[in-house]
Task: inverse folding
């Protein structure tokens, strides 16, 4: 009889624990669904963390790669560079049409700015050889094509050419 009471007591505790887990799951699921319904993040755009959009930046095959590649207009952006992939002149990052020019280092691998206009903006290294782009979208996820400046696009560089034997850009 005592053994049966212990088993019943343990079963009761297990049922209570299961009910608690399902209730907690329901509350979490409900919160996630309601915040997903209220989320105004455009498709493909970086979700806003606090008051800053954080974007990871790497160098792949001579191009800056951003993850994600879209940000919202009028919301501060923090580009965090992977300095294991960005070397030489590639450490100077220029986004001319947004007014960004910064040389990154191991001790300072972030670029912060607030985009004030929508569009697709070209990025280059300081010697206009590496390329990349960042897309700034409005609240609806639309990016105006009018702000892209083909004149600021990389026309190919001279890395490694000439009598000096190269520029040290890492390319």
Result:
């Amino acid at each position: 009889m005592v053994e049966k009471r212990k088993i019943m007591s343990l079963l009761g505790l297990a049922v209570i624990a299961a009910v608690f887990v399902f209730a907690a799951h329901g509350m979490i699921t409900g919160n996630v669904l309601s915040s997903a319904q209220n989320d105004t993040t455009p498709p493909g755009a970086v979700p806003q963390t606090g008051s800053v959009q954080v974007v990871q930046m790497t160098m792949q095959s001579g191009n800056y790669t951003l993850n994600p590649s879209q940000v919202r207009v009028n919301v501060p952006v923090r580009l965090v560079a992977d300095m294991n992939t960005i070397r030489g002149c590639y450490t100077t990052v220029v986004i001319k049409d947004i007014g960004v020019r910064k040389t990154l280092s191991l001790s300072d691998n972030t670029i912060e700015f607030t985009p004030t206009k929508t569009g697709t903006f070209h990025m280059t290294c300081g010697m206009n050889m590496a390329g990349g782009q960042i897309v700034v979208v409005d609240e609806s996820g639309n990016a105006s094509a009018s702000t892209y400046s083909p004149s600021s696009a990389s026309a190919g560089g001279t890395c490694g050419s000439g009598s000096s034997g190269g520029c040290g850009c890492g390319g």
